[in-house]
Amino acid sequence: MARYIGKEMSRVDGVAKVTGKAKYAAEFKVPNLAYGFIVTSSIAKGTIKSIDTKEASRAPGVIHILTHENYPKPAPPTAPELKPETNTNVPDKSFRALQSNQIFFNMQPIALVLAETFEQARYAARLVKATYNEEKSMTDLESSLDKAVAIDPQRAAVPRDIVKPRGNPAQAFQSAPVKIEAEYTIPIEHHNPMEPHAAIAFWENDKLTIFDKTQGVYVVRQHLATSFNMPVENVQVISPFVGGAFGASLRPNYYPALTAMAARVIKRPVKVVYTRQQMYTGHGYRPHTWQKISLGAQRNGKLTAIIHDSRNNSSTFQDWVENTTEFPRTLYACPNADTPQRIVRTDLPTSASMRAPGAVSGMFALESAMDELAYALKIDPLELRLINYTEVDPDSGKPYSSKALRECYRLGAQKFGWKNRKFEPRSMRDGRFLVGWGMATGVWGAWQRPASAKITLKSDGTAHVASATSDIGPGTYTVMTLIAAEYLGLPPEKVKFELGDTKFPEAPVQGGSFTTASVGTAIYESAQNIKRKLLDLANKDAASSFKTAKIADVEMIDGKLQIKNNSSQSVDISELMRRNNLTELVDVHQAKASPEREKYATGAHGAQFVEVKVDPEVGIVHVTRAIEVTASGKIMNPKTSHSQEIGGVVWGIGMALQEATEIDHRYGRIMNANLQHYHVPVNADILEIETIFVEEDDKIVNPLGIKGMGELSMVGIPAAIANAVFHATGRRIRDLPITPEKLL
Q1: Rounded mean pLDDT of 475-488?
Q2: Do domains 25-136+193-275 and 144-189+285-446+599-743 have the same CATH topology?
Q3: 424 Cβ neighbours under 8 A, 6+ residues apart
Q4: Under a CB-based contact definition with an 8 Å cutoff, are residues 501 and 217 in contact?
Q5: Which of 486, 507, 511, 489 lies closest to 498, judged by CA?
Q6: With the CA atoms of 116, 118, 124 and 125 taken in that order, what torsion angle do they form, in degrees rounded to the nearest 10?
Q7: For a FRET experiment, which of 92, 245, 422, 730 has its CA 20 to 30 Å from that of 134?
Q8: Are strands 303-315 and 341-346 parallel, antiparallel or unpaired?
Q9: How far is CA 326 from CA 141, 272, 309, 409, 621, in A?
Q10: pLDDT on residue 90
Q11: d(CA 184, CA 362)
Q12: What is the pLDDT of residue 544?
């Protein structure tokens, strides 16, 4: 009997991706295409005094040039507000290009040159001349911490609740016998997906079709309907493949509306693709974050106070707080906690979600501070975490639906050989290298969002499954095929799953690691509906062997409807459909989180153990060994899941040791907006990584027991590396990335 969940399955889209058959946003063939090239500002704040396009207009192949002076005025925004299931319930306040002569950030779009070829558009873009009334810009968070303000709901990109303090943290900290107080900083970091952001747009009368690189086709559809004041049903957004996004395409970026407007103005299809440099201001970024952690503890290690003050930068036109303190405040049993979050408005684009947003930044600070506390108390860092372990959410008092973190600690420590660690810094060596062992904890949500799917079961023994979700790389095509195959009782090769198109039923954006839980549950429940329809068909027959069977007693397996584990009481599904003159059975279903979840705290957890070797003469750090143990519910496909975990560890290594967007604050300009000078890990940086799953049986989070893992896998890694570097060198680096000059 064929079963697929929990078994290794190769990517169903793998061959298409390696042979070039998979089409990304900029690769669709559209006749009579014109090419757009974006011109960007050279100042960070002020207004455009004049913009001269005469020479550029005369360049070969140029069709038209859009600037703020001739950009058609947007229609009055009467479109409905975004629905809650699209992840926000505030009106779309995202930045739109060429709306006025005002400059909010350096490298802001100031013109779009349209030409017959990409090369002609790029050449003419260099001939556009602008002069400015320049004002003094401010782009440095740390020089303006005193200007931090609470997020304004009217200006918020995403609304955030203000979380009240728990207990009396200030008093508890003051009276604690052992205290740790430290500041931690993380620079701006940029998503650098392989595929640059791009769109192709064309109009047919009043209907707009756009191919876009997005994590949510419905969000872009709503954004475009709002931008053009048109009915949403007149906009089709298509995005079947996304070459990485990591949060850079969660919110609508400025180029889809710009591309669509250009296509409307010149009355022909238009393609716009960001250059790598334009990606640094064309979508968001992980914000510059300053955090101050104050921990109070008893001499036995029990925490009495956590005060976690976080401030990050946003833009002057939109507020975005990274939510760095949500997860840290609930990780440990501590009666008193305060976690204020504020923003500093800077002359930069709005910051955004970037893989494991908030959690990886907040946990870098908390888990580094916990390591500092362990040394102040002379308690092993793992032991300190176990002393403060909690089985309930400290805020609500609710028990966790499942939490196998204790087992993650035990298994990781055993596999790593943690008991052989010498406590004192600089006490372990390998020849001339200083050896350090560090550990940390990862935590992430186990969310489920409303999501819909459509199943069409055909009498020829095949099925078509569709949902307007996205696949930014984690393997959505594969896992949805696998879930459908499992519950429809078909081989995976007989199931075709499609996504990334607004003609399919609505699904949430792909972000927050909740896609499999949300869309997978919709497919599972829709398959149950199909099974119910088949059971009703079977029971039309007076001689049916299912007359007394309840739906839970029946399964679909190997093309049959049968009593569970009893193939003698079965009926061939194709035969049953043909007998009833049905070529197909269709079900469209929306799945929502169960009310049962409200009684519990939910989350996914992990433990990270890292070994570093540091060359004391040049300060270079190598992560020689990393063990990641993850508890994230039921593992659907171990093959792609281990790949996700390894990718998260690699990203954590980059965040800890390499990644930083450098800004020249005199001009508010990004200095390393390219892959030559923005450093990310390469093969030579990655040595031994082992990923292990501790599976949890949790039917409260959703019927399939799925929790997200793609972001969880990086959450504790930067802290674990920083803690290992301290153990190796005795130097506590609280300012990421940990580069050689900070150690020398």
Answers
A1: 97
A2: yes
A3: none
A4: yes
A5: 507
A6: 130
A7: 92
A8: parallel
A9: 21, 38, 11, 22, 31
A10: 44
A11: 9
A12: 86
- Token code pair at residue 624: 């020689």
Residue type for position 602:
T
pLDDT at 172: 98
Residues paired with 333 in a beta bridge: none
State mean pLDDT over 672-697: 96
The residues, ordered by sequence, that sit 6+ positions from 466 with a Cβ below 8 Å of its Cβ are: 453, 454, 497, 498, 499, 504, 505
Q: How confident is the model at residue 89 (pLDDT cuts 50, 70, 90)?
A: very low
Cα distances from 542 to residues 151, 546, 555, 659, in angstroms, run 66, 10, 20, 69
Answering whether pTM is above 0.85, one says: yes
- What is the side-by-side order of every strand in the sheet holding 560-563? 554-557, 560-563, 566-572
Residues 98-133 as b/e (b if ≥16 CB within 10 A, e otherwise) read: beebebbbbbbbbbbbbbeebebbebbbebbebebe
pLDDT tens digits, one per residue of 393-441: 999 999 999 999 999 999 999 999 999 999 999 999 999 999 999 999 9
List, for residues 560-606, the tens digit of each pLDDT value. 999 998 888 899 999 999 999 999 999 999 999 999 999 999 999 99
Class of CATH domain 25-136+193-275: alpha beta
Task: Indicate the helix (H) or strand (E) that contains 544.
Answer: none
Q: Quick check: bond before 399 cis, omega within 30? A: no
Report in angstroms the alpha-carbon separations of 578 from 505, 562, 573, 585: 27, 17, 9, 11
Least confident of 4-13, 153-162, 380-389, 689-698: 153-162
Quick check: 171 pLDDT over 70?
A: yes
Instruction: Quickly list DSSP for 277-293.
Output: TTHHHHS--BPPEEEEE
Report the C-alpha gap between 298 and 315 in whole angstroms. 41
Strand partners, 492: none
- 639 in helix, strand or coil? helix
User: Among residues 132, 65, 142, 144, which one has the least CA distance to residue 103?
Assistant: 132
Residue 229: the pLDDT is 94
pLDDT of residue 91: 58
CA distance 549 to 486: 21
498 catalytic residue (yes or no): no
Confidence of residue 122 (pLDDT cuts 50, 70, 90): very high
* Sign, CA torsion 545/547/551/553: negative
Degrees, nearest 5: CA angle 239-285-144:
155
Distance CA 308, CA 318 (A): 24
Beta bridge partners of residue 628, listed in sequence order: 608, 691
Query: For residue 497, what are the β-bridge partners?
Result: 465
Any idea where the domains of the chain sit in the sequence?
Answer: 25-136+193-275, 144-189+285-446+599-743, 449-592
Please give the share of the chain, as a percent, with pLDDT higher than 70. 97
Average pLDDT, integer, range 329-336: 97
Instruction: Give the CATH architecture of domain 144-189+285-446+599-743.
Output: 2-Layer Sandwich (3.30)
> What is the C-alpha separation between 120 and 115, in angstroms, rounded?
6
Written out in words, the top-level CATH class of the domain with range 449-592 is alpha beta
Q: Which helix (H) or strand (E) holds 391?
A: none
Query: Would residue 358 be called left, alpha or beta, if left means φ above 0 and alpha means ψ between -120 and 50 degrees?
Result: left
The count of other CB atoms within 10 Å of the CB of residue 18 is: 10
- What are the pLDDT digits (tens) for 128-142? 999 999 999 999 999
Mean pLDDT for all residues in the chain: 95
Sign of the dihedral defined by the CA atoms of residues 69, 72, 77, 82, in that order: negative
From the candidates 326, 525, 555, 711, give the one annotated as an active-site residue.
711
